[in-house]
Amino acid sequence: MVVGERKPFDEITRMLEGHKKVLVLGCGGCVTVCLTGGQDEVRVLSSQLRMARDKEGNPLEIIEKTVERQCDPEYIDEVQSLVPEVDAVLSMACGAGVQFMAERYTGTPVYPALNTSFVGGSKKEGYYVERCQTCGECKLYYTAGICPIARCSKSLLNGPCGGSTKGKCEIDPEVDCGWQLIIDRLESLGQMDRYEEIMAICDWRSNRDGGPRKMIREDFQR
Amino acid sequence: MADFEPTIVAFCCHYCAYGAADLAGSMRLEYPTNIRVIRLPCTGKITPVFLLRAFEKGADGVYVAGCLEGDCHFIQGNLVAKPRVNYTKKLIQEVGLEPERLEMYNMSAAMGPRFAEVAREFTERIINLGPSPLNKNVKIKKEQAA
């Protein structure tokens, strides 16, 4: 899932300065799972914003709404009747959701309430870890299902650097060395031959260097 | 303003704190009348939304009272509530309210006197803090106003 973290409250209140009525729009997708942008978070942020503005004697009217996903046109169409009622939209989705809203509702400012952090998963409730950097050149076959791009701090492709000590990374003794994890797992799977294979330089054209990416399923085009 | 009548919302667990409140009543114990008790099946039901809405509606103070740690009827509801209360303290601080306006207490159903004591302690704390800036109906104590 895409993991997002709520922006500092001060930054959000600054974005909304001068606005009298806003739509706080949650997203029922990834950010609901990571507890930063779903229905409950919409309620919490709305309460906080109303209280902060009430305290200043400058009340803010808020419409609270959460849609299934903000990165799908059919779901953001649902707020079509609400957007004209407000001065601005505060989106609690990832950056994709914010931009889909901004593209769809061109006449209304759309602000982000979250910082989109990474693609990861839940270790347990409320604990999320990065696992993928969406480089577009998946190497997990060679590395026993552990990503050297995401897990090695230097994104090295052929073994650990000299900074790996007792299985930990030199950037932080709490961080596992990604390559140590890969080697341990390859060994336990009896697949060390894959480690012997020299990986070619990563083709970063499939990463951000090729500009905004797209993925088209021709069989679904109309 | 040390002489105002605070409005305090107490989210009480059905099996412990609510029982303690009941016992305090049976024992004819006196405690301030500022407390508005809201009964919950378990403090594990608490989310930041509940607590924030109480403040938003003008409560001067809010507390959550659950079972003693290790004694939750639902095994760990009170342990679930505790970090949520702490997290909500940060949320109200961001808005400019003192985090001391929110607290979590633990007590058993047999602790009627403790319930009354908490009510007194917390009311005193809120009186010292003064009214919440969001309380639109600040009540001054009658004798003071007269």
Would you mind describing this structure in some detail?
The complex is a heterodimer of chains A (222) and B (146). Chain A is an alpha/beta fold and 222 residues long. Chain A is built from 8 helices and 9 strands. A 4-stranded parallel β-sheet of chain A has the order 3-2-4-5, sandwiched between helices. Chain A has a 3-stranded antiparallel β-sheet with strand order 1-6-7. The longest helix of chain A is centred in the N-terminal third of the chain and has 17 residues, at 39-55. The two termini of chain A are 28 Å apart. Chain B has a 4-stranded parallel β-sheet with strand order 3-2-4-5, sandwiched between helices. A two-stranded antiparallel sheet of chain B has the order 1-6. Chain B has 5 helices and 6 strands; from the N terminus they run ββαβαβαβαβα. The longest helix of chain B is centred in the middle third of the chain and has 19 residues, at 77-95. Chain B is 41% helix and 18% strand. The mean pLDDT of chain B is 93. By secondary structure, chain B is of the alpha/beta class. The relative contact order of chain B is 0.26. Chain B has helices at residues 17-26, 48-56, 77-95, 112-129, 142-145, and strands at residues 4-5, 8-13, 35-40, 61-66, 102-106, 139-140. In chain B, α1 links the parallel β2 (8-13) and β3 (35-40).
